[in-house]
Amino acid sequence: MRNIQLGRSDLQVTPICLGTMTFGEQVAEPDAHAILDRAIARGINFIDTAEMYSVPARKETFGATETIIGNWLTARPGMRQKIVLATKVAGPSRGMPWVRSGSGMTGADIIASCEGSLRRLKTDAIDLYQIHWPERNVPMFGALYFDPAKDKPDSTPILEQLEAMGRLVKEGKIRWIGLSNETPYGLHEFVRIAEQHGLPRVVTVQNPYCLVSRGHVENGLDETMHRLGVSLLAYSPLAFGLLTGKYDVTGLDGPKTDRRTRLGQFQSVRDGRWGRADALSVAKHYNNLARKLGMTPTQMALAFCYTKWQVASTIIGVTSLAQLEEDIDAWGTGLSADVLAEIDKLRWDMRDPAH
Prior knowledge:
- Helices cover 38% and strands 14% of the residues.
- By secondary structure, the protein is of the alpha/beta class.
- The strands form two sheets. Strands 3-4-5-6-7-8-9-10 form an eight-stranded parallel β-barrel, surrounded by six helices.
- Strand 4, helix 2 and strand 5 (84-89) form a beta-alpha-beta unit.
- InterPro entries: AKR_Detox_Biosynth, NAD(P)_OxRdtase_dom_sf, NADP_OxRdtase_dom.
- GO terms for molecular function: oxidoreductase activity.
C-alpha cells in the first residue's frame, strides 16, 4: 500500500484505516491491543476513533475506546510518531446527556471535548479532529429528506465552531480538521467560511460508502470534494456486516452474540439504515454476484471501496484478528470494467436501500 495525502494537508496515510468503535464493548482491551499491533505490522498507519465510542453509545463506555488506544500508545514508546491518529467531537447529544449537557455543539463544547480526548488518548496532539455529525438540521443516519421545519434558530454558527478549531490548531492540540456525516452544502459552508476568515480548512469528510449505500457520496458530494480538494474517508464499507454474506441465511436476527444484536439501535429490522429488510435483500444480490465471480462477498465489497476514485482511505472495523487479516488481504483485489458494469446495473435496479 502506498500512502496517500489527505486533502490539502501534510497527512500521509494508508488507504486502509483501522476503525475502533468496537473496542471497549465487543472487543476487550487486550484483544484491541493485539488488533492494533497486527494492523501496524501489516502496514496500516491510520487509526480512527471518537469520544463517544465504544458503540452502542452509553454512559458506562463513553470514552472507553480512546482510553484503550491511549493505554496502547503508552505501552509502546515511539508508536505515536508512527501513526496518524484521528478522533471526533460528538455532535449534539441526540439523547446522550453524558456527552454534554447542552443540546448543541458550541465552540466551548468543542474545546472541552478535545481536552478530554487528549487526556484519554494520552497524547499532546490529535492529527485529524473531526466533527462527528452536524449540529444543524440534516437528514442523516438513515433519514432521507431534509425538512426545513426542523431548523433551530439558535444553532451554533459554523463560524463559531471553526474559531474553536482554529484556537486548538494554534495551541498545537490538533493539526487538521475534518467533518463526518456531512452534506455538500455543509462542506461548502465550512470551506467558504474558513477561507473567508483565515480559519482551518477541512481536509476530510467521513461518510458511509458501500455497495448498498452510495448516494451519500455519489449524488453530489463526490464532485464537491473533488473540486474543493477534500478527501473521503469511507466508513461502513461492509454495511454493518450485510456485505459479508453472514446474514444471507440467518436473516437480520442472526446469532444472538453478533454485532447487530449487541448494537441496540441497529438490531431491529425497522431501526437504522443497516437494519432494513430491503438492505439485506439487495446485499444478497451483491453477495451472490461476488460468489459467481469467484470472490467472497467481503472481498468484492472492500475492493469496490479500495479501488473507487472517490475514496482516499477506507475505514475497516473488526472484532477479531481473523477479520482484520481478511479485510487487509482484500487489498489488491481488482474489479474489471465488466464487473463494475454488473455492480452498476444492480444499483440502477435497486438503488441505495441503506441510504
